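Lab notebook, page 48
Experiment: co-folding of the full assembly
Goal: obtain a model of how the components sit together before planning crosslinking
Operator: M.T.
Materials (sequences as entered):
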Amino acid sequence: MTAAKAARQVFGFFGFLGRRTGKTRVFAALGLIPVALAILVRVFLHGRAGLMADVSTEILMVFFLQFYIVILALFYGTSVAAEEVENRTLSYLITRPIPKTSIVLGKFAAYAALMFAMVGLSLGLSYFIINAARLGDPEVYGTFLRYLGVLGLGILAYTAFFTFLGTVLKRAIIVGLVFGFGWENVIQYFPGSTQRFSVVHYLKSLLPYTPGSTPTGRGVALLLFRLEPTSPVVAVLVLAAITGVLLALACVVFRTKEYLPEE
Amino acid sequence: MSAVIAATNLSKWYGNVLGLNDVTLELEEGITGLLGPNGAGKSTFMKLITGQLKPNIGTVTIRGRKVWNDPEIFRGIGFCTEQDVFYEDVTGWEFLKGLLRFYGYTPAEIAERAARALDIVGLTEDKDRLIRGYSRGMRQRIKFAQAVAHDPEILILDEPLSGLDPLGKRKLIRLIRDFKSQGRTVLVSSHVLPEIEALTSRIVLIHQGKILAQGDIPFIRELIEKHPHQISVRSSDPRALAARFVGDTSIQKMTFDPDGRTVVVETHQRDGFFGRLTGVVLEAGIEVDEISSPDDNLQSVFEYLVEK
Amino acid sequence: MATVREKGYSHWDGRLEERRFPWWPITRTGILLAFRKKRFKFLFAGAFFPAIVALVGLYVSERLEDFKAFIQGSDRLLNIGPQYFAGYFLNDWLLFMILLVLAYGAGGLIADDLKHNSLQLYFSRPLSKKDYLVGKMSVVAFFVLIFTAVPGLILIIFKLIFAGSFKFFLQYPWLPLSVLGYSALLTAFFGFYILLMSALSKNSRYVFVLTFGTYIFSTVLYGILNGIFRTPYMALFSIPANIQQAKAFIFGLKLPHGFPAVWSFAVLTGICALSAFVLGRKTRSVEVIK
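Observation: model returned without errors.
Model output:
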């Protein structure tokens, strides 16, 4: 069986397993919170639908960009390797005729698809509830797709990073937490090139607005505060490179390292 | 006969702890029992030959191919782990089908093989129950099922009989023997001699990471035979009993316990002694409370071999 | 002939006699196990960093002439009062480190017992559910108090020593009580919070994510709701904001959020009550498999 076919089989198996677990239900339920918030905004602030829609969407993006995809990627990314070692089920996988790299890639793809589904559903519902008054405007759909694309790239990049951490470190979750909620939150506010040493910088550079472009003229302080954006093309390339390189490294480490279960 | 599994100068360290100490071994077709107490290195050896661990020194090959990072080799190998671990949120049926996917079978083949494996281990009726709800014996059987579902040539079974009741053990032993009769190679590990004895006459004895002895059971027993058996007889008149055996040249030594009711006899001819004991007891009218063999166990065998 | 039991572990049916501290072995073991984890000692030491900085600040404030060149214009060091001590407790680093130490060192307190089916082992001994939970909670209490009450009281003592008089104590006699009261609040809250998270899963890595995720999410939610509704009451959704509000009340300072502190106490108590309910259900000696 080729590596690609093996990865597809791993994808299928862990996609099935991932949908089954209680943890996925909990994370999916977390994604319903922005939907509830969107309903609240529509119910309580419908008089100011136009302006509120812009501001609310951007505020909700704080939830998605700086919390939801990070926490999902942290858990599922580190699970790619760590879960098998902790649960001692690794022997079921590495004693099958499938390359070890297929295990990493297949699990990564399965969990990324799962996360994308959760995020997509949550974003879709909350976005279109908030923008219900403007469903006839094609720009709304374009903006939605752009948001979805940004979050999708974020899922891939963060998950690749945490997958790599999970293959290398025993306590990857702590390092991942410090990176995801410490480094990523702090470094993006540093001026100059320093902010380019974070994943979230490139994601923010892809958002469908720039500082000062909203009707209020002030932009959204929350997400774009001190952002010195990189060009969209470069941002996409960097995110793709981060994903590719870290996944490749994860495959190399997983292939060469032996994993001893903790007694 | 050429070796199926070959280990050459195989050594493995866990940090400062030596797990396997310069093991050179060749295993041929048929059933081989790997026997040793807990911590002897049986699981380490099995993990090395199934590619879960990488040797620090030496090589391990299966049919001439190195095991580490050669996934294709596992097409013909089935492994049953010692640990009671599963993907708990699936049924037995889903578990087997999920793992069979990795062999490139068609969906119809996967279903057929899974059904056959469940039938072999007697879990067809429980196939739609979550593994989390299985009893210990059922979990052991589903583990065996996943090892045999793809019809492997070589079976590596790490303590497959642990946790099973006597009936379950008998069924599994029969299954393993069936595999051997189909021309397959089976390596079974255990720390219980009678279990291995029921499966095969070919044993490898391992202790503290070293191979102590290899051969047929009679050969191992012979090692014991070179060391006198101890037989303890608790009776109403141990000294009268002992007096009856003083002239018996097969008896090496007799000692009396401080309780004054037990005589411990050392002899090379244990079976002969038992035969004569019955007659002596009846003739002398001595009441015997208990007969036991304090050293007729694996520990004694190992103690002897280690001292050697 | 004695009855042959079918199972190895069954609930102990004997009468619980009066025993002193039956929960103590659980607490002691929990603390020892936390210190056995590799990086835990490093985290534990790191959590003392704010206390050391505060202590240095106290010293400097009493030796102003020597340090004048360094602290020009900084009136925080000149003004040692309740806000200085409250500032130690509200230090973001301290709260983060307490949470990290607890999530890493104590996150498996109940999760590991659920994973290894150890509850049966506990309750087949003369141990009540209350003793079990008190024992586990005491592990959390140990770590929280060692970062809050102990340094807090030591800072007050050192302030008196550096000042060479009891003037500070006479000026703020209620300060030690505030330190103890706030430490007790943090201990109770984090005790229930960590045990709640630990009881929700058998997977300690998931517990770790859940612990931090919930804490951080509450702040994110506050930010979002505040951005939409622009009312200070949205701070009730944030765990750190509620802790801040309670702290300010206990130290007699100006409340950071524009609503009565009683609401924050109610929210924190509500979380503790939820935790007690979940813990009561989860810590059973028999697992029901559906």
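Interpretation: The longest helix of chain C spans residues 204-229.
Next step: discuss with group before ordering constructs.
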